[in-house]
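dumping this here before i forget
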Amino acid sequence: MGTGNDRLGVTILEDISTLILQSHDLDETLRNIVTLVARRMGTEVCSIYLLDEDRETLRLCASIGLSPEAVGKVSLKIGEGLTGLAAEEGQVVAILEPKTHPRYRYFKETGEERYHSFLGIPLFDRKIPIGVLTIQTVAPRQFSADDISTLSTIAFQVSSIVINARLLDSIRKKEEEKSAFARELEKTRQSLIDKERPAAGQTNGALRGTVACPGLASGVAYVLDDNLGFPETLEDEPVEVASELQQLELTLEKTRIQTLFLEKRVTERLSQSDAAIFHTHLMFLEDRSFLEKLRREIHAGHSVAFALKKVVGEYLEAFERMEDPYLRERAADIKDIGRRLLANLGDTLHNPLQLKHPGILVAREILPSDMATLDHEHIRGIVTETGERNSHAVIMAKALGIPALVGVKAAVRSTPPETQVILDANSGCFYVNPAPHVTEEYRRLQADASRELHRLEEFRDLPAATRDGEKVILRANIGLISDVNIALRNGAEGVGLYRTEFPYMTRGSFPDRDDQYQLYRKVVENFPDYPVTIRTLDIGGDKGLPYFSPPREDNPFMGWRSVRVSLDNRDIFRTQIEAILMAGAHGPVKLLFPMISGMEEVHACREVIEEARANLRREGTPFASHVPTGIMIEVPSAVQMAEQLAREVDFFALGTNDLIQYMLAADRNNPLVNKYYDPLHPAVLHALAQVTDVARRQGIGLCLCGEMASDPMNFLVLYGLGMREFSMPAPFIPRIKAFLRDLDSAVAIKAARDVLTLSESAKIRAYLIEVLKEIEQLD
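structure:
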């Protein structure tokens, strides 16, 4: 889209935001939007048709230019007329002289016979049509690609507005149906929680959990709880109603202005569609029912804080009770709004997502999107109640070198905000309000840890090599732009795994090709002398996108995820590959496909690569003529097919995080089977040995890019099996370099050969501990 149209698109989006603030319901919002779009696009007609509840009938819901009497009365079936054609085909319909088109249908009520051009753009909710946005002109007009692109973005915003308006209406109906029994049950549950809660500032000694990323940290606790940071119990003292109502209006106005600012900033920094999520927020902040409930609570004598906690909590419960997983996930929007309302209420309350100084983040769970938006410089450690040691949020924490403890029961309710805490992610302990002697002991341990980090600094810029001079390549796993500097500071030789899904998680829609290209280019240009391996989008399992929810599945890790999603959405897939090929013009890039299970997928991916190259050639867009192509070996079928797959690709990337869970039938995010997730299981080691042997004989590249390589005990075996290229969280690179300096290749090769003869993980681990002791003695 050209610069002029970019500016036009931004202006229209800003105006739509203003319209939402001025509108009182969906009908008024739609009327204002069609008027705005017609004026800005220079057309005589703009109309919005929405599907009725029967999912078959399109009804004219708003129009400027067509007869006002037609609104609400004119309807047609999907596939009927040009508007129905756009809904049926799910794509743009642009027609000159529409009356001559065989699908044209005339409605006497609309008076549209005098218009000589037609453009219809479908509105979607997760690929399901919900309506059509149309424009018409008196003079014949050939709509340009820029026109269509701008209108498609607007259609995306309209879809969001319609979806959320209907969602709010659905919640209102659900609340009306809520039974007295359910309310009593909730009261009983809350009462039990209150009885179990420790008194503020007290603790029963150390809380224990599972180490996800080792390290020591201390500081104040930032508590990210399910109540959006609101205290669990707010004292309900008498309040002055007029004063509280004024405080509420000030808070709402400040949050609305902040929302408009956030939308503008995201539009400028990312894209127009990325900013669409803030339209949802504005609609909620203007929703009559929401505002009325808040005011009702205040008139009943409650404070603004109490009203917000109660009303926002009720909305969250309503969302989370919904059967549709997509609708349940929309609760994230309500949480975001609740947090910002809280932060804008006054200085007496806190917002856990705005870290003012370094501290320990304590949460029930942390999502990848949280990790993508939090201020990493202020997070000294992470403690979660859920036990996902290998969740992608924790993987991101490892990439940043942040100590993390998971599976800490009652961590949130045992930790008052701003309390002094100590996180020992070496031994698995978390101390709330530690005793003086505990504080003193950990101060000594932190001093020792600091000296060790200082010792490792000398290895950062040294080459990775064994005691006997065998060269090893250590690259970094990254997920965010902020990871690049961490990788460079730790001496990474390029990027062995760029997880492209993490930037998607902070956006409101899929980034367009240019957004992706600029992002990948920035990473590539930071490593001019080393390759950057870019993995295509890997969503599903524990990685969801707020705007692209997969269908509900009993076992999502074995379902519709990763390359399967990409191949079923080839337009999105091709767009990403084009962006990667374009970034390859600025430095060495390698293209990596995740979760390949057989030859058919490799061939299908190659087809998309050729389509992408053809598109770029046709446009005259510069791109890398040759980009090495590889596949992740992370499912058992790929291990068995390694010999055949090696003939089709340039390199293998061993994804041990998934491979271990698939081989051992142990969901890495399920604490009930966590003990079965074992990287040193004999079956895992034999599979790794098999793939390494195939890669060596076939003469293709091999890089292990799972978390397994960051542990010296595991690394000893992997090196001994013949692997010479690894990718890991960057903060572990100096430690592995230091370990390599003490390692003799012959010792590692013998250790690997010996463990392959052992049939139990416990025996393998005991043997390796003895080998490590011998290496330390040699040092």
